[in-house]
Amino acid sequence: MVAWTAVGLTSMPLFYFQHDLTWLTNTAVWLKGPIERGLNLVMDMFVANFSWAFGAISWLLSWPLTELQGMLQWLPWSVTLVAFTLVGFAAAGCRLAIFTAASLFYMVATGYWQESMNTLALVGVAAPLAAGVGFGMGVLGYRSGVARRVLIVCLDLMQTVPAFSYLVPLLLLFGFGPVVGLIASAIYACPPMVRNVMHGLASVPSALVESGEMSGATRWQSFWWVRVPAALPQIMVGVNQTIMATLSMVIIASVIGGFNDIGWEVLSTMRKAQFGQSLMSGMVIALMAMILDRISAGFASHVRSTVNTPTVSRSNALAASALLLLALFAASMLFPAMRQWPSEWRVYPAAQINDFLSYTVSRYGWVFAEIKQIVNFCILLPLKIGWLRLFDATGYTISPVNQAAYWVAVLCAMLLASFAWKGRGAVLVALVAAACFFGLTNIPWPVLFMVVGVAAWQAGGVGTAGFSLAGMSFILMTGLWGPAMLSLYLCAAAVALSFVVGGALGALAASNDRFSAFIRPVNDTLQTIPQFVYLIPVIFLFQVGDFSALIAIVAFSIVPMIRYTEHGIRSIDHEISEAAIGMGCSTLQKRFQIDLPIASPAIMLGLNQTIMYALSMLVIAALVGTRDLGQSVYIALTNADTGAALTTGFSIAIIGMVADRIIQAWAKKRQRQLGLQEIRSA
């Protein structure tokens, strides 16, 4: 508490004199010009000297993409539909087979088959490329400690730097075209594979490896015949996540790919404000994501199973499937409708959807407007500009007496929080009260430096504090402090809502099996829907603006909070729960005094993932009118400015990495205090 008291006392004069000392808010831009010019110069030199090599890579990758696209377009839709249905049945049984068939038939009947097959061709090349490169990098990280440390930093950057930031150098190296989208998708999808390979190989029991070596296996044989098979379940999880990450890049890749795929269809209809068309095409991406997710997850669960299907049975099934597909192919030659869906049979209710939604908005638009206004004035604007400026803007002035009353109420709340949650509660109340009174965009940068520095030091020591302050200094001196504060305010609001709502839903799911069974497929659906698709209903119902961005970010980032909260509470030892009940604890007392404190490390890791998800949506949310770092990335992409794109992308990554380091350090510290094992996954 001594450090926080010093922060509070030092901050008071900074807030008081911030209008007189302009350097507290008008930040310097010492490094902006040199860094951006330097990056652009390096990029120009690199392109001038190595463009021939990247041209060769582009040609090499265009070959399998073109061939796969041609094959998928040549195959009759009936053959492809049945083939995927059989794969779904082999992966997870009848339910997945029926879902796969219905989803693919939707693509056929709505007339999106050609675009869907182009998207599948892109995923079919990008996902194996990302998985192969990721496997090699994961093996390297497993074998070398130095390589592992370097890879972890690189993976953090790859997963937090927005994809639009590295689209600019990719455009300069490869030019416009499908191959650029393919490479961007592979880069974005590579980190999950690397992490899972490193984790899977490191988790193989040493006794298993020793038994292989005692049997006479060489080092090479021990790796491929013992370690890799033992780590295969975890590696398959990486394959699943890689496929989903590749598909989530489909629309972003369409911005630069010039590919007649479903991503371009979504993007073009969104630009034309054609809600029905964008909703129907967005459903194609969502359904494709669910199919690929469940099929890859189903085969991953087969790998975990110790019961193998007899070889004869598998051979008979493959032979029967091949005969069925050949029969369908022959039939499609006789019946043209089985080869190409007739245009007059197309089911395309986009106009009816537009009419229905227009009627809904015209009839009940006031409800959406009221919700938007309430959230804006009660949450977003106070957090952005503060109560002080908000009242000034509406023509009301907060008198000194009312200001004093506000801070007296804050002091009382701090005392109450200190009594309930010790010193941490009082600090949290003080930080929230200051943020809402002054606004995050109006807080002097030295104050934020002190707050983050002390929090990082208490959570992870001097190293974490040094990293956090160095990262914030980079943002400050590159002139991106203002946009960064806008990003911080929007992410803070989204993360706070996700934390409260997601935590409550996770706690309810942990105590109610029926609700858990209901919320699980909802979480799966939300996690498989690509990011752009969230914007479609939000734009139509709430128009553009910060509120629309908030809704899209919350919808995308709330899932980890639900999952980790439920996982943390369900992982509590039953003996502890029984002891609490035996001591006379009520349900609420047990939940708040036993369950949540013990599950706090898992909950904090869920908060960490929620922050990462929210940051990854920043650039996507910029499409609905935000003016933060995401918008700066778009401007850099429009101007083909490599320096500005990378500088802005690194700033977003720094925010995510600082939050990640602090929360991870706090969670590990809390786990040690509670004597818990490391929490890896929900």
Give the key terms.
682 residues, mainly alpha, 29 helices, 83% helix, membrane, transmembrane, cell membrane, amine transmembrane transporter activity
Give the arrangement of secondary structure elements:
Elements: H1 2-16, H2 32-74, H3 77-92, H4 94-109, H5 113-143, H6 145-160, H7 163-174, H8 178-202, H9 206-214, H10 219-248, H11 250-257, H12 262-271, H13 275-304, H14 311-334, H15 336-339, H16 350-384, H17 386-393, H18 400-438, H19 445-460, H20 462-477, H21 481-511, H22 513-528, H23 535-542, H24 546-570, H25 574-582, H26 587-616, H27 618-621, H28 629-638, H29 642-674
Description:
The chain is an all-alpha fold and 682 residues long. The chain is built from 29 helices and no strands. It has helices spanning 2-16, 32-74, 77-92, 94-109, 113-143, 145-160, 163-174, 178-202, 206-214, 219-248, 250-257, 262-271, 275-304, 311-334, 336-339, 350-384, 386-393, 400-438, 445-460, 462-477, 481-511, 513-528, 535-542, 546-570, 574-582, 587-616, 618-621, 629-638, 642-674. The protein is globular. The protein starts with a helix and ends in an 8-residue tail after the last helix.
